[in-house]
UniProtKB/TrEMBL annotation:
Xref: SUPFAM superfamilies: FAD/NAD(P)-binding domain (SSF51905)
Domain FAD dependent oxidoreductase positions: 28-382
Protein keywords: Oxidoreductase
Record protein name field: FAD-binding oxidoreductase
Domain of life per record: Bacteria
Coiled coil: none
InterPro entries per UniProt: FAD-dep_OxRdtase, FAD/NAD-bd_sf
């Protein structure tokens, strides 16, 4: 078993980074080479803006290369809950943004000729307990009525065509949802941004910043650049240089295992529907087949802000137990990959974007950024170029988390609370 991201290990790394020390004067500097930053850099360069992108590790290193590979339509909450929390107009704008982002990803893949196994496979949100069925049926009816008439309720009998397990009691099918190979998309997006003229420096963390009369000076270990505007696209990996955002974000570790390739018979007896799947527990699992027919199975196996080899090993063991409890037929199937990564969560789990602390930003995707981040990167580019009404998250207040200074000490308490809730019938 390799303790590495399957997405990283099975894609060709980006190899067109700018050589030599960081230097130059730019109109916009983007910090973070995940989907948000790469999308912003591509759009800016395509529009003729002189743009630099600074990445602390390598392209797609963070959440963009460590997620479950889902591009799911809509947001995590019921539409009614979002409407109550955000107001109807904002709830609808946010829902549309998730759907529009999948459409945008599909167009970019076609325009830039990115080979990343994109497919509109649909997603099923599964009822993990009989007591969850009525709530999900109500949610499905509301989604159909308010925002997406293509959503469909599947009975337990209907599910036998999709997922072969006794663990589920019905589910909501969202056919607009998609999937792709995240590593190949990230590297393809970086190649596109480079091709359009963006300067991309990898392994160049921003260690300090200084406000100037006409913008910012950004320092890295290899050099310094200046830029009139800065886009911050670091989410859970935001450095202490930008403490304003760290006080508002809670980095939570999420973990994934990937099996060896399954045989056609094994697929037929586990996931014949070949869709994205999530369950309805508070500490949820998500799973799907990879492009080469491996089972990818993930979840928040532990509530912490740490992902390293030790936590990955213990979390991988727990995820294997969870996978086998859902699919006993996979008990003897080997695990080839195991990894973890950080998810940037807000207190209410809704994302945030706008201008603050001298930068333009989008983050706080709360585990649902794979689909939304490309769209938000484009929106940040438009904001930097002076376009009004480009931000679908405009007006979302974002107070600091009480008693939180960047290290979320309270996560184990939160995890215990939700585990207890999941034990209830």
């Amino acid at each position: 078993m390799r303790f590495a991201s399957y997405w990283h290990e099975t894609s060709i790394p980006f190899a067109m980074g700018t050589a030599g020390p960081v230097s130059g004067d730019f109109e916009v500097a983007v910090i973070g080479a995940g989907f948000t930053g790469l999308s912003a850099a591509r759009k800016l360069a395509q529009s003729g803006v002189k743009v630099a992108l600074l990445e602390a590790e390598h392209v797609g290193y963070g959440a963009s290369g460590r997620n479950g590979g889902h591009l799911n339509s809509g947001h995590f909450a019921s539409f009614g809950a979002a409407k109550q929390h955000l107001g109807e107009d904002r709830a609808r704008r946010l829902w549309r943004a998730y759907d529009d982002s999948i459409d945008l990803i599909e167009r970019i893949i076609e325009d830039e000729k990115i080979a990343c196994d994109f497919r509109r496979g649909g997603k099923i949100k599964l009822a993990s307990k009989p007591s969850h069925v009525a709530k999900l049926q109500t949610m499905c009816a509301e989604i159909r009525r308010e925002v997406d008439p293509s959503a469909e309720w599947l009975t337990r009998e209907d599910l036998r065509k999709e997922v072969i397990s006794d663990a589920f009691h019905g589910g909501i099918l969202s056919p607009k949802s998609a999937m792709m190979h995240m590593g190949r998309y990230a590297n393809g997006l970086a190649q596109a941004a480079h091709r359009h003229g963006a300067a991309i420096w990898e392994r160049s963390p921003v260690t300090a910043r200084e406000r100037m009369r006409n913008g910012w000076r950004l320092n890295t270990p290899t050099g310094t650049l200046t830029a009139r505007q800065v886009i911050l696209a670091t989410d859970a990996y935001t450095p202490s240089t930008f403490n304003y955002f760290r006080r508002r974000l809670m980095p939570i570790a999420s973990f994934i295992i990937v099996t060896r390739p399954l045989t056609s018979q094994e697929i037929a007896t586990t996931l014949p529907g070949n869709r994205n799947f999530t369950n309805s527990l508070n500490i949820a699992n998500y799973f799907r087949l990879t492009p080469d027919n491996r089972m990818l199975f993930g979840g928040r196996a532990r509530f912490s802000a740490v992902s390293n080899q030790k936590t990955n090993v213990s979390s991988g063991q727990l995820l294997r137990q969870q996978m086998v409890s859902v699919f006993p037929q996979l008990a003897n199937v080997e695990i080839d990959y195991c990894w973890g990564g950080l998810v940037g969560c807000t207190q209410d789990r809704y994302p945030r974007a706008g201008s603050a602390d001298g930068v333009i930003y989008s983050m706080g995707y709360s585990g649902h950024g794979a689909q939304l981040s490309t769209f938000m990167g484009n929106a940040l580019a438009d904001i930097a170029m002076g376009q009004k009404d480009a931000n679908p998250l405009d007006g979302f207040a974002w107070p600091a988390v009480p008693l939180h200074a960047g290290n979320p000490w309270f996560l184990p308490i939160v995890g215990t609370y939700y585990r207890m809730k999941d034990l209830m019938p």
